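Fold it.
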Amino acid sequence: ELDKYQDACTEIVERARAEIKIDFALQKIINAWGLLFLEYVPFKATGVQILVQPGEIFESLDDHEVQLQNMMGNRFVGFFEKVVSEWKSKLGTVRAVLDVWLEVQRSWTQLESIFLASEDIREQLPEDAKRFDGIDASFKEQMGDASQSPNPLDACLKDGRDEAFNNCLAAIELCNRSLNEYLETKRKKFPRFYFISQVDLVDT
């Protein structure tokens, strides 16, 4: 006598179909992140392994974050809500860590030869040189550890990773500010220096 309960049966079947669809999509996302890897290459002769631009990781983040957001808006998400929410948070953290990580790495590769190899800069900006020594040590420590964790979830979600890179970025901004102010004094004395790169100007 199912005909007597048509509305209830229709709702149950609709919910079951929706939940199967959510479950399948969610498992596909989870499995995908188990197969993604970060790549590293050595930077010059420093012995430091630096991160290769993770294009595939960002493509997956773009795709999967949208999927998870759509799941959260699905009225049948109830049974999966906790897992979906956890994965939204994980992927949000991965994106945030990668963004600051790449910014720190970009700055470190530019400033490493300036603050560590230029005696003039170390003499003229002793506090910032000391600050960069700390940045250098922290960055190398993080990269040494991260390069042992090819999976982006393992690398980005490790306790302290986000804080370490954010601290490095804040310190780098101070070093950059002092360096630019110092180089600006050189440019004012010799206007032709405005056409010389930061690294070349340090060497002059």
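The mean pLDDT is 90.
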